[in-house]
Structure formats: structure tokens, C-alpha cells
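Figure 3 (text version): C-alpha cells given as input.
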């Protein structure tokens, strides 16, 4: 996984690197987006959609 991540970060990911995959992680970290639907390729049996992390205020809580 780390090897694929590093290839993707360096823009060196090839089609062969993705051959045989059956799990998809979709990162939805675009600010202001409240709904996202990943495009799931044929053959993928599981998809995990991870939303952006937001810091929300809490009544009565001091900062």
C-alpha cells in the first residue's frame, strides 16, 4: 500500500499497478462538498468513502 501511495504522490502510478484491485478508498476532502459519489470501476467489490475532517464548535467549550 505504501508503495502505491508513493507512486501516486509522485504521479508515477500506472495502469498495471491497479490491475486486479478489488477495494477502493475514495477521499472526499474538497472544502464545501457535502455529498460525493465515487466512480467505482468494474470488478471492485468494496468501496470506502472517507469524508473531510471538520472542526465544529461546541457550546460551552473553551478554546
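Below: residues designed for each position.
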Amino acid at each position: 500500500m505504501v508503495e502505491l501511495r508513493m507512486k501516486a504522490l509522485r504521479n508515477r502510478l500506472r495502469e498495471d499497478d491497479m490491475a486486479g484491485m478489488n477495494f477502493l478508498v475514495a477521499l472526499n476532502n474538497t472544502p464545501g462538498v457535502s455529498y460525493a459519489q465515487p466512480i467505482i470501476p468494474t470488478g471492485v467489490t468494496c468501496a470506502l468513502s472517507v469524508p473531510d475532517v471538520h472542526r465544529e464548535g461546541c457550546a460551552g467549550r473553551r478554546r
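Residues 20 and 43 are 8 Å apart (CA to CA).
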